[in-house]
């Protein structure tokens, strides 16, 4: 499943049913989303954040390759990975709230597609209408602004970030990721 998630953990685009042997970048390049983005779907100041699997485009930011990075490139990669936590958290919330994703589904592929689309729609509706009940404190990675420490849910990790500023228009950031279903 390939998905685009907004700053509020809502799925704004999903692509289901790709051949598992197709690369993430290949799935993206063959998607309707890619066609729309190539035709200036995003606002002028909007962009998508992806991982290494995606091609670098004028609308798609991805990390520098990990070979011989400068300090500035390492900082950029860290900030980009920090933004990508939103999409990772959205998938984590979806799986934890809809336990049908915890094991293989024994039904027709067309039924699996309907289940995934329905769960994503319900996730968005619950996220918007009942955020505090649907996503209680601790269900996502959080950051303590006063201490500048990122707390990663369920992994027992803490990362001391480099001084970071939030993007000027968080709503213009859309996050893209692939997850095997």
TrEMBL record:
Annotated Gene Ontology cellular component terms: nucleus
Question: Sorted alphabetically, which InterPro entries does this protein's record hold?
Answer: HARBI1-like, HARBI1_dom
| Pfam families in the record | DDE_Tnp_4
* Domain of life according to the entry: Eukaryota
Keyword terms: Hydrolase, Metal-binding, Nuclease, Nucleus
The record's comment on protein family reads: Belongs to the HARBI1 family.
PANTHER family with a match to the protein in the record:
NUCLEASE HARBI1-LIKE PROTEIN (PTHR22930:SF269), PTHR22930
Name the UniProt record assigns to this protein: DDE Tnp4 domain-containing protein
């Amino acid at each position: 499943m390939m998905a685009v998630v907004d700053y509020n953990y809502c799925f704004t685009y999903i692509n289901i049913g790709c051949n598992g042997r197709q690369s993430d970048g290949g799935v993206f390049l063959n998607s309707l989303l890619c066609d729309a983005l190539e035709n200036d779907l995003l606002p002028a100041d909007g962009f998508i954040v992806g991982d290494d699997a995606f091609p670098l485009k004028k609308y798609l930011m991805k990390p520098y390759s990990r070979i011989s990075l400068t300090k500035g490139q390492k900082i950029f990669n860290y900030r980009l990975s920090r933004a990508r936590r939103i999409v990772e958290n959205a998938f984590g919330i979806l799986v934890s709230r809809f336990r049908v994703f915890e094991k293989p589904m024994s039904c027709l592929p067309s039924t699996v597609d309907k289940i995934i689309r329905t769960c994503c729609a319900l996730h968005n509706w619950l996220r918007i209408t009942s955020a505090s009940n649907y996503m209680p404190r601790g269900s996502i990675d959080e950051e303590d602004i006063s201490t500048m420490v990122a707390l990663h849910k369920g992994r027992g990790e803490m990362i001391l970030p480099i001084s970071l500023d939030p993007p000027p228009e968080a709503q213009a950031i859309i996050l893209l990721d692939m997850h095997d279903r």
